Structure formats: C-alpha cells, structure tokens
Amino acid sequence: MKALVYTGAERVELRDVPDPEPGEGQSVLEVEAVGICGSDMHAFLGHDERRPPPLVLGHEAAGTVVAGPLQGRRVAVNPLVTCGVCAACRAGRTNICADRQIISMPPREGAFAEKLGMPVRNLLEIPADFPAEKAALAEPIACGWHAVRLAAPVAGRPLAEARAAVLGGGAIGLGAALVLAHRGVPEIFIAETNPLRHETLRAAGPFTVYDPRTDAGPAPGSVDLTVDAFGGAATRQAASALARPGGVIVHIGLAEAEGGLDIRRMTLQEITFIGTYTYSESDYRETLAAIVAGHLGPLDWTESRPLAAGPEAFADALQGRTAAAKIVLRP
C-alpha cells in the first residue's frame, strides 16, 4: 500500500509499505480521510522525540473496515489504545492509562496510509453516508470536549453566563470554541495570528475573532474560561493575564514545554490551571455523536487533498498558506 512516511526534519515521502494484517481483536480499514494535526507538524519539524523517523504519522482518521470484525462498516477511529484494566481505565480516565499508545507514535504506525490496523474497540460506527472528512474531526474536537467538561465545574459561574477565550484557531481551538457554543457559552473570543483563517473562524460559529498582535481582544482579568489550544510561552502568558480572579485555564496545546505562566498572579487570584491530554473513551463517543447529529455545525472549515499531495500540504500548513482550520488528506 501507499503511505506518507516522515523521513526526517521537514520531509515526508509517499512510499510503498506493507499492508497491515488483522490480528486477534483487530480490524483493518481503508482510510478515507485523515487530518494533519499540530502534533504531526511538531514531529515534521523534528521537535518530537517520541516520533522518530521513519514513521507513518496521522491519527485523525475515518474509513471503511475491509478485514476482521465490522467488515463493511464505516467507522471513525479513536487512535488512543489503552489497557482497559488499570485503575485509570477502570475509573473512565483512559487518556491517562500508564500503558496508553497512540497511532503515529511507535510502536503503532499512523493513518497517513491507504490502510490501517486497529483494535475493534477503537472503531466507532458512523452512518453509511456520513462524510469521512467530518467523522475524522471527532479526534481533534474531542480534545476540546474533554477540556470543557473538566473546566465547567471550576469556571466560577455557569457556562450560560460565562465569557470564554480560545487561544489558537486551528482545529483544536475551533473545536473547543464549537463545544463552548454547544454548551451555551454566550461570548466566545478566538485569538488567531494567521489572518487567512479569520473569515473561516467567523463563519464557523458565533465567535469574536481577533489577532492578538494587532487587535483588541477581551480585557485582562475578564475571562471566566480560557482554552490554550496552542500551548506556547506566549499563549500561556496571555492566558495568565486574561483569566479573571477565580477563573480557569485549560491547557491543551503542546507547542513548547516551558515558560509563560504568571504563577504569582494565578496564586493571588486563585486561578485554576488544568492540563488536559486528549480525551476519555466516553468523550470521544459523545463528540462523535454530536458531530453526526449536527450539534457542532456544518464542519465545513476543512480542506481536502489527496494523500500524494501530502508533502505540499505539510509545507502549506507550516507556512500558514491555507485559510482552512484543518487540511484533510484522502488516501
């Protein structure tokens, strides 16, 4: 089969690789759509030691099962494979399983390929006519679903009365904003430095979109719930300043490991900080159900390209040359 293989810093190549074989409790699916994630970009730049080349990246996928259980069914892929028996898994916190694995990280190859092998329990059925590009968005949007679920009880006021800010307008940030709107938050700001994305973000939902470098956003100390969807020193510094006394910051992004937080202000103002990683199995199921039901909008803010155009897609994403919040590859 053909696969897009990460071979070194800023290099991905279309190669022939062996087809996956279904093992016990496994199925093989033909991948119909797979999104390029920020973590894929992080690896592409050579900044993720957990993803050494050569490696097939990609973990936001949907397709049709062609071998093993569920053969013939169309499915979305929960890429987080967990043990199911540890204390965290038994408590429903599968995302912090000590033995967790995610496709696109050794020992599991990713989904930038024509076929993908997965445990059956990681495949969730979707309607036969549901667009794969939208089903593949369950993975990035589930990150925001999980973050908002954790933040809501400690936001200091009901979400229906809250002001929220999302830092970063890629698929993770936009997904979080859509979840906030779905949960009834009446005022949602999105900070995004790529001006090409601004109209896309405004069209996606009831959001106030601004460039934090040049535009006025929410006033410092005025935000109940801040989502850092980028995760760099600059966005953590912004989140620290935006949070109101007693507010909450949820941190999803993984751009940089250190810097930015104003710990003194967060301590004096009792601002809650929550680090969030991916989602639980129930978060993923609920997100996919909301997508299929249309509760998160038309989800028409992606751009589809063939898998063979992957190298150009990575370069365009790196240089900010697309207005889409997500590039989806079609093997």
Compute the number of strand runs.
Answer: 18
Distance between the termini: 10 Å
Number of DSSP helical runs: 10
The helix/strand order is EEEHEEEEHEEEHHEHEHEEHEHEHEHE
Outline the biggest β-sheet: 7 strands, mixed
Low-confidence runs of at least 5 consecutive residues: none
From the alpha-carbon coordinates, what is the Rg to the nearest angstrom?
19 Å
Q: What's the helical proportion of residues? A: 25-40%
* Whole-number total of structural domains: 2
Mean pLDDT: 96
- Quick one: CATH superfamily of the largest domain? Medium-chain alcohol dehydrogenases, catalytic domain
Provide the CATH top-level class of the largest domain. Answer: Alpha Beta
Which CATH architecture of the largest domain would you pick? Answer: Alpha-Beta Complex
Structural description of this entry:
The protein has helices spanning 38-44, 87-90, 132-135, 138-151, 171-182, 198-204, 233-242, 263-268, 281-293, 310-319, and strands spanning 2-8, 11-16, 26-35, 55-56, 60-67, 74-77, 80-81, 101-102, 115-119, 123-125, 163-167, 187-191, 207-210, 223-228, 243-251, 272-275, 302-306, 326-330. The chain is globular. Helix 10 (310-319) links the parallel strand 17 and strand 18. It folds into two domains: 2-137 and 299-330, Alpha-Beta Complex (Quinone Oxidoreductase, Chain A, domain 1), CATH 3.90.180; 142-275, Rossmann fold. The chain is α/β, with parallel strands linked by helices and 331 residues long. The chain has ten helices and 18 strands. The model has no long low-confidence stretch (mean pLDDT 96). The chain starts with a strand and ends with a strand. Strands 3, 5, 6, 9, 10, 17 and 18 form a seven-stranded mixed sheet that branches. It has a six-stranded parallel sheet with strand order 13-12-11-14-15-16, sandwiched between helices. Helix 4 (138-151) crosses helix 5 and helix 4 (138-151) packs across helix 9 (281-293).
